[in-house]
Amino acid sequence: MLKKLLQLAVLIFFSAVTTLHAAIDPTLDWYTIESEHLFVHYADGYKARAERALLIAEKAHARHTNDFNWQPLEKTHIVLSDETDFPNGFATPIFFNRTVLFLAPPTSVNTLEDFDDWFTTLITHEYTHIIHLDKSAGAPEYLRGIFGRFFLLFPNAYQPAWITEGLATHKETDLMRGIGRGQSTMFETMMREEVIKGLQPVDHVNLPVATWPAGTTRYLYGSQFMAFIAETRNEEALHNWVQGYSDNLLPFFINTNANQTLGANLTPLWKDYSNWLKEKYDSQIAQITNAGLKQGVQISADAYSTDQVQVLDKDVYFVRNNGYQQASLIKINAAGEYKVLAELNGSANLDVHKKRGILLTQDEFCNRYHVYRDIYRYDEEKKELIRLTKCGRYIFASWHPDGQKIFAANHQSGVMTLHQLNAEGGLQEVLWRGDNDEVLGQIDVSPDGDTLVATMWRHKLGWNIETFDLNTRQWQAITRGTEIESAPQYTPDGNILFGHEKNHAYNLYLYNTQNKSTVQISNVLGSAFQASQGEKDGPIYYAGYTAEGHSIFKLEDPTPITSSIKRANVSSDTTLLSYDYEDGDHAQRDYSPWPSMRPRWWFPFFGFTEQRSPVGISTVGSDALGFHNYSLAGSWDFKLDVFEGSASYAYADRLFLSLARNSSVFLDTNNELAFSTVHNIAGATYAFPFRKILSQHEILAGVFLDQEVAHKAGTVMASIPDFEDHILGLAWLYNSTKNHPLSISRNDGMTLRVVAEDSDTLDADYTGQVYTLDWKQFIRTGKESVLALRFLQGWGTDNPRPFELGGEDVGFSALGVLFGGQSASVFNQRKYPLRGYREGQPQLRGRRSQLLTAEWRFPFQRNERGIMTPPIGLMQWSGSVFVESGAAYQNSPDTYYSSAGFEIVADSNLFYFVPLRFRVGYAHGFDSEIGDDRLYMSLGSAF
Q: InterPro entries under this entry (predicted)?
């Protein structure tokens, strides 16, 4: 078990590294500019954006190094990525300080909408991470001077995410300028609903929870906690808190640090914090309630991330995203019948047309590195979802009333444009091109087809409602003010519904296009963002927010909540306190990976047994763009007099190379050394991925050389013959399974592994070919329960490495995640578990094998609670019952060995960020000769 945990630590580290590198396209031409504290790396065509990033980040560097009293020893690498239309970024101190910024602006109310310059807010947030995570003191700082940037010597990286993300969100927030999530109406809405539902305890917020508010929990509770400390103590108390934790050589003592720097450990602090939140938000609840509530009735069966409603006559369409199932397009007809029309890739934006059907935009792979938003049309008669554009980057789309044209908001290279397309998605004309960082949000075409309404973000003006005359190509402001407007939608009679933030909530407003007046339609306790009306004076359906998340509501009475009419200018504050930047002109050079690829840390390892005494060092490295990744390790065994080591290299997600040399010890009956052998192993794999969001194909071609030679004789003096096991392999992998946030297992799909391997071409001691078919199907049987099926057929010719069945462990390769992709578990895989039978039995060994498994998995309880020290959390319990049967044979199966049993599964979390699945099970093997009653504990799923 200890060996597996050590392997798992390496697995987690390397899998995190590969995840952080996943967004960058190595086929582009990359360049670099440099300043006093920064490198900025960018693709061809993004020089201006790189200059802006350099300027903003230098300002952030000056601010944050002063706040945290810390100067990094080396320059920070900033990577500009335009491989997605999703607004985000990330930062890491691994290898070197590095942040990747996605060049996609927020275009709707999604918690990121409250900014005076989205790029400044993004950089401010990510650069807080850079300085915070890099900071060290005391023993960690001293040891980094010896071992370099060893990944365990960054104390601030090893604490709950609500601390790191909360601090960065707090730093992005500016109360005076009215920007950042920490003061946003969206976060006020979410926390107000948390107070109504009941605030989460700290041992819940510590964990990467899946229950709502899910991934936003760390940002929401974290930023409000930082505001609580700053208000009840001062801003410097936060910096002292960081300073106090920065010298922790043994991580995770967050209570001790809080007690020393804030005067109490986190449990009583959290109680004070909860009281502070209740006092703050109870007044908002009273203010909204006393004004008289006018809110709809929830009609969607689920909440979570369910949103984007459109109404056509009496039919209601929306996107269901409930955390248990794949996002889907839903229809509720006039009779109230609920129907699933199509699975979607995730979130989507909708528009409907009586004759042409449903128009939607959603993410999809453009190529192996880019995920962009494209336009689709759902044909309700044919029950078919048709992709109209590929790599189009269309964030929003709306039908023209004639059904022959589509208007779409496009995002390319940080520039927003408005396109006119034909009904098949072909570009006809670019109607408008933004400048000065304008952001075009959700759009809708008027019933007469003459105008288009949109949310528009403009410099110093923020988010407002504007109309675009499709004949004159001119914009006209409907609202002016710094309060945020969202999701405008024409009503059947040509007026405009939209969401507007005021008095701590988003509510629905109606703009009358004839008399130019605006009235308030709703007054909700949560928020109402986006609405649609199917009939004049008919009910309004809207996407709103409650404590359970986003869901769809029906507001039966669309009349204004007061008789007073408000002018369109709904806010008197009309100017954001934005910064004005003057971009520089730094010398550009071609990107070179070599300066950043040198090893950034090394670490010794050793071991002493009666037969072994290895002493060695290891290191890993990567370049700034994450294209080149390597691992090096070497040791000398002083008892066996042998060098052992490994060298692995991965280029992007394509090429994987590895070399390894290790030894094996064989003992005699007196436990003395009989002899030792040395394994020399080399492998190369090339991957050809074909990806979609809902299904992935991958073709792998590999060659593996394995030579075992006699090394040292002990009590056995006879020569040991050399042995060679070389293979050429070709594999096809397919995966359509889903792993939803609230699932207990993979579900709703299948995986397929088809492998052909040859031992003859490379003249190995094993001979013949091996063909493997491994099929796994996951069928939903309830909200969370799953029926999991498996069929494995292994077929060998001549004399290949034999198949072996038995045991319970699935097995994994830690380094295979980074160096070799899936190849370690794809090629030369001959051992498979058969529960209820011990490993190594001759009856379960042969050149061919079959395995059939049926397993029903069901939930027990979702806990999501933990303890502070040691930092362990229990996320959920589940169970399973199974039957399986297998055979290993030379030509045809003589006997099938069957078993049945049950398992208890605990999904746990270690160190606040490491997910671990523990299985405890009982299996009964039915065969009277070799079957056992076996109790076992293992890591990971059975399959």
A: 6-blade_b-propeller_TolB-like
Say how far apart CA 298 and CA 544 lie, in whole Å.
9
- Name the domain boundary from 560, 588, 619: 560
State yes or no: pLDDT of 467 exceeds 80.
Answer: yes
Distance CA 114, CA 121 (A): 9
Is 358 inside any structural domain?
A: yes
Q: Is the sign of the CA dihedral 352, 358, 359, 360 positive or negative? A: positive
Half-sphere exposure of 576 (CA within 13 A, CB side): 24
Dump the DSSP string for 36-66. Answer: SSEEEEEETT-HHHHHHHHHHHHHHHHHHHH
- Worst-scoring range by mean pLDDT, 620-629, 774-783, 814-823, 915-924? 814-823
Q: What pLDDT, on the 0 to 100 scale, is given for residue 571?
A: 58
How many independent structural domains does the chain possess? 2
Asked if residues 133 and 92 have their Cβ atoms less than 8 Å apart, the reply is yes
Closest alpha carbon to 805 in 923, 916, 896? 896
List 509's β-bridge partners, or say none. 498, 520
| Assigned token pair, 89 | 């970024």
Tens of pLDDT, residue by residue over 124-166, are: 999 999 999 999 999 999 999 999 999 999 999 999 999 999 9
Residue range 480-493, pLDDT digits in tens: 989 999 999 999 99
Alpha carbon distance 679, 892 (integer Å) = 33
Residues 356 and 488 in one domain: yes
Query: CB–CB of 338/324 below 8 Å?
Result: no
| Residue 702 structural domain | 597-724
| Whether residue 521 sits in one domain with residue 655 | no
Q: How far, in whole angstroms, is CA 308 from its chain's centroid?
A: 22
Task: Find how far residue 697's CA is from the centre of its chain.
Answer: 20
**How far apart are alpha carbons 409 and 432 in whole angstroms?**
10
Cβ count within 10 A of residue 577: 12
Tell me whether residue 496 is in a domain: yes
Whether 4 has a pLDDT exceeding 80, the answer reads: no
What is the residue-averaged pLDDT of the chain? 93
Question: What's the confidence (pLDDT) of residue 576?
Answer: 65
- 309 and 442 share one domain: yes
Residues 526 and 622 in one domain: no
Assign residue 520 the CATH number of its domain. Answer: 2.120.10.30
DSSP, res 516: T
Put the strands of the sheet holding 76-81 in their side by side order: 89-92, 98-102, 76-81, 38-43, 30-34, 589-590
Rounded percentage of the chain residues whose pLDDT exceeds 90: 87
How far apart CA 114 and CA 703 sit, in angstroms, is 52
State the DSSP H helix or E strand holding residue 119, giving kind and residue range, or none if neither. helix 118-134
Please tell me whether residues 444 and 384 are part of one structural domain.
Answer: yes
DSSP state letter for 598: S
Burial class (CB in 10 A: 0-12, 13-18, 19+), 923: buried
Q: Are residues 474 and 616 in the same domain?
A: no
Looking at the structure, tell me whether residues 369 and 479 fall in a common domain: yes
Supply 517's token pair: 């007046």
Residue 355 lies in a domain: yes
628 and 525 in a common domain: no
